Amino acid sequence: MEKIKNQSFPSVTTDEWKDKAEQSLKGKAIESLQATTYENIILKPLYTPKDMLELSDYPGGSDFRRGIYPLGYMTNDWKVAQRLSCQTISELQEKLHQSFANGQATISFYVSKSLLEINQSLGSVLADFYEQYPFAINAKMLQAPMLADLERIVEQKGDSNISGYIGADPIAIFAEEGSISEEYFNKWVTSILSSSQKLPALRTILIDSSIYNNGGASAVQELGIAVAVGVNYLEELQEAGMDLEDIFAKMIFQFSIGSNFFMEVAKLRAARVLWYRISSVYGADEDRAKMHIAAETSSFTKTVNDPHVNLLRAGNEAFAAVLGGIQYLHVSPFNELTGATPLSERIARNTQLLLKEEAQLKKVIDPAGGSWYVEQLTNELAEKAWGFFQQIEANGGIREALKSNWLQQQIMAVYKQRNHDVLTRRKSMVGSNVYANLDEEITFNNLQTRGSYFANEENALKIEEIPNRRLAEPFERLRQKAIKLEETLGSKPTIGLLCLGGLKQHKARQDFMKGFLAAGGLKAQESKPILTVEDARKFVIEHPGRIYCLCGTNDQYEIIGHDILAALKTESTELTLYLAGLPDKEKQDLWHVEGIKQFIHMKSNCYETLEAILSELEVSEVEETKA
Asked: Which domain holds residue 558?
């Protein structure tokens, strides 16, 4: 045993590691393992102590990147802030009681007009809970009436024990609505000033970056916008007469957490670095200027198809949020897009409890601290986000950047990159553009829509809105199209696969095409091994259709593919034929001349190809109906 204990591994230099890695890469340079993110950050294949700048040895110090508390979650656990959906006061009461008994740690729910317009005061109902639990609410347009209701209860009871946050972010509302209302903004400022006196322990100034995340923004853009919005509120509220220290103490930041695990961890750490820099410039008290963060799992990454995969997505995002050092967390139910159920809501809440009790994250101080990769990513994000913040200020500040549509265009440019990667399947969305399940029953008709707050306001300035987008939406539209076709045809729309040669020769491309077609709701009808032209002709006769695809090796295409193509085109000029794979460039023109419409391969735009196929099937169905 002593001999084993005294053994040690020989030290290895970075150059030796590179040599070994390049051997594994079979001659490729180590730089081929680098990846560029949507933030224009180059991720290296290896990080070492040289990549880490000097930083605080403990959380709660320096620039707060490691958290705002010295002992992290051990003394200041993050709050389970699952937003409840309720239509009536009684339903809210019942759900709150149940949630608190099962691990909920905040008063958190979606605020609606129906709850505020009921005869029974919402504030009086919440008074049963707020002495024991903090609030965690983004009240949006209904912040002012909700605060007014609570203020009345506080005056009647003679206490002010309300804590947590009931916030609203007018600028985020403007961006989402596509309208800027100075009238509403001025009323919001008045409401903040009033509530700061009557509800001193409650945070009311929300900086909500989730709208930009759900619009497709990069982490750099989210951070730069959050800082710009925070600075705008500091300036406006100071001008209105609010004390600087009080403004900082009333602020809370809300971030949506996406699927890029380490980027999201670094994003939250970088956010604190940036806000520390701002608070230092303004000369704010360090304790009051600590950034408090409410996080939620992103809707941008969620899917209607195969919704149980959303459990994994939300779990990954929640894990990243906790490692990033948040104070409040909401995990979305896996089927939220089509209507959450008691089961999905319970699973969402339990996701956090598992992270606390099973993963033991509440007992670890700064679990991401010391990672050379995370620390370097934090530094790069902070610097690039500061640069983006300066660009916003150069464009006149956040509100002017929205009015000119400059900010919307910047976000759209990143969204187009993200969207292209999904359409071409460079980025996988399990259950949507890869591994689609054609047998699942999908409900699309309950997708949430939102109304417009400023539609009838004459003085509201119209701007380009930042819509709530989702990466999976293009493929969900294809699936809906396929379902409508199935209802018309009486069976799933089907594409014939002509499998050339033996199983080993066509299996790879056959499987590729099945997965490719399934992403658009199309079923693949596979032939038996086709060894002769007659085999192909027989399959087409027995499985009549309009569209077929040749699957096989490049050698098989040359041996028998041309003859099959000529025979099928001779018998029917209306057939549309595809070829799986990408032939050598000098041979592609011949295939097109002989009748191949398109080559389908790994770099194909999956969405555009499937949309074209579905459109052709729709047209052919209309033509057959007319005939």
From this structure: 475-626
Same domain membership, residue 397 and residue 302: yes
Q: What is the pLDDT of residues 470-502, one digit of tens each?
A: 999 999 999 999 999 999 988 999 999 999 999
C-alpha torsion sign, points 543, 544, 545, 551 = positive
pLDDT, tens only, 519-570:
999 999 999 999 999 999 999 999 999 999 999 999 999 999 999 999 999 9
Looking at residue 444, its pLDDT comes to: 61
Work out how many domains the chain is built from and give that number: 2
Half-sphere exposure of 566 (CA within 13 A, CB side): 9
Q: Cα-flanking dihedrals φ and ψ of residue 472, to 5°?
A: -85, -10
Q: What is the pTM of this model?
A: 0.93
Q: How many residues does the chain have?
A: 627
Could you tell me the CA-to-CA distances from 31 to 14, 27, 258 in Å, in that order? 14, 11, 27
* C-alpha gyration radius of the chain: 29
Helix (H), strand (E) at residue 257: strand 251-257
What is the band of 627 on the pLDDT scale with cuts at 50, 70, 90? Answer: low
Q: Is residue 588 part of a domain?
A: yes
Residues 6+ apart with CB under 8 A from 198: 151, 154, 155, 160
Residue type, 402: L
* Beta carbons within 10 angstroms of residue 442's beta carbon: 16
Amino acid at site 120: Q
**Tokens 């292209």 found at:** 420
* Residues 210 and 347 both lie in one domain: yes
**205, 280: one domain:** yes
Other Cβ atoms closer than 10 A to 25? 13
SS3 of 249, please? helix
Give the CATH number, domain containing residue 408: 3.20.20.240
pLDDT confidence of residue 449 = 53
User: 109 and 84 in contact (C-beta within 8 Å)?
Assistant: yes
What does DSSP assign to residue 107?
Answer: B
Q: Which residues contact 572 (CB under 8 A, 6 or more apart)?
A: none
Residue 626 has pLDDT above 60, yes or no: no
**pLDDT (average), residues 599-607:** 97
User: Would residue 124 count as lying in a domain?
Assistant: no
